[in-house]
């Protein structure tokens, strides 16, 4: 099925074939977020050889249409409370854009909760006598959109439907879309002439460039960051993750891990001896860092560290970790709970600024909460210390952790480590599957309870058990079986096992 609006559609498609389209969308609320600037950007782009324009909002489409008869791809962006879809979500938006003078109407075509279906939007565009563009995140989005009769498919939404936002354009998706239709628009993170050429070579019928041309704030920031790497490099921080099984120490600069050493935690030791072991391990790095951050299992208040579960690490009373580590290392030190540090690391790792809960399933079960851009400290997020409804009156983490998996395997006659239990479960061994399924079921219930209590936009899962192959799939299956009224959105940690290290390094820089 294709849109049929006569010869005009053919002429328009030919005009945009093998062409550059410039997206003139100012930063919302920025200095250039006004009609005269948008019109100026549009006319400047056309004078330099752009064949078409991509314009946001009916107001700006109307302003640009009054200044030129060049092809306009129109869209409307909205932030909705009940849907992640932002680009032209409503049927009324289609009418508004058509009335304003858009030739092509773009809309989000991803498979997510949405106010209007892709099929309904495509039909509304046809009814308005316009061509349609489906902003897709994957091949499946494009297949559904083409079946609904859209005229163009674009790579616009690739990297924007969850997880860390990529840096480079999705050229592979452009090539995959080209196998479905010749009317492919390459769009999203195309910032250099080389990337634009790569998109064209991959089969795009036209290439959209936006921020690199019309968002002065973004381009300035790119050059500022590049210059700062030479003139004002970010400080190097000693970041330490002190856990119940191992201690990881790294040198971190601007979120990048430069060097790392890992050694076992002496569980028979004391807080004082653990600090001493860290100082010894990082002695070769002396002089390379100007601040330090230590992420620890347990609770931290006012720089003092205490155990929440002595089965993980036995700490007597409160230990002045911040002051003692600073004294021995000779630099300012910030101390935080390890899961809270990891939550902050995950929050900073992407451009997504929605609220999150981080859950680490490892030697213990920890958590962290970032709400309204702020990390909650103290005991916030210690979900593993909840008791649940178990008659055993023990913390939840005692049955949702690596040690429990190992002990349960041993009880069943298989004295192996958690990693081997997961491998056995993947190989179809019933005893192992029953152990893993039990942990997944309990963890799924906890995630559902957290969703009802805090209602985070996402729950990020980390830790050796949490990131084990197949574990998250099992948890999601258990959640589906529960059928909660509010289903949590679970994502794997973008930083993997480095979340805590990166997070505590950033907290040390900002002195939180």
Write the layout of secondary structure elements.
Elements: H1 7-15, E1 19-23, H2 35-47, E2 52-56, H3 58-65, E3 72-75, H4 91-100, E4 104-108, H5 118-127, E5 131-135, H6 139-147, E6 152-154, H7 171-178, E7 184-186, H8 193-201, E8 206-209, H9 211-214, H10 216-231, E9 236-242, E10 246-253, E11 256-264, H11 271-281, E12 291-296, E13 299-301, E14 304-306, H12 321-329, E15 333-337, H13 338-349, E16 356-361, E17 365-371, E18 374-375, H14 402-411, H15 418-426, H16 430-454, E19 458-462, H17 471-482, E20 490-492, H18 499-510
Parallel strand pairs: 1-2, 1-8, 2-3, 3-4, 4-5, 5-6, 6-7, 7-8, 9-12, 12-15, 16-19, 19-20
Antiparallel strand pairs: 9-10, 10-11, 13-14, 16-17, 17-18
Structure characterization notes:
It is built from 18 helices and 20 strands. The chain has 512 residues and is α/β, with parallel strands linked by helices. The chain has 3 domains: 215 residues, Aldolase class I (TIM Barrel); 105 residues, 2-Layer Sandwich (Nucleotidyltransferase, domain 5); 143 residues, ATPase, nucleotide binding domain (Nucleotidyltransferase, domain 5, 2-Layer Sandwich). The strands form 4 sheets. An 8-stranded parallel barrel has the order 1-2-3-4-5-6-7-8, surrounded by 7 helices. Strand 4, helix 5 and strand 5 form a beta-alpha-beta unit. It is globular and about 80 Å long.
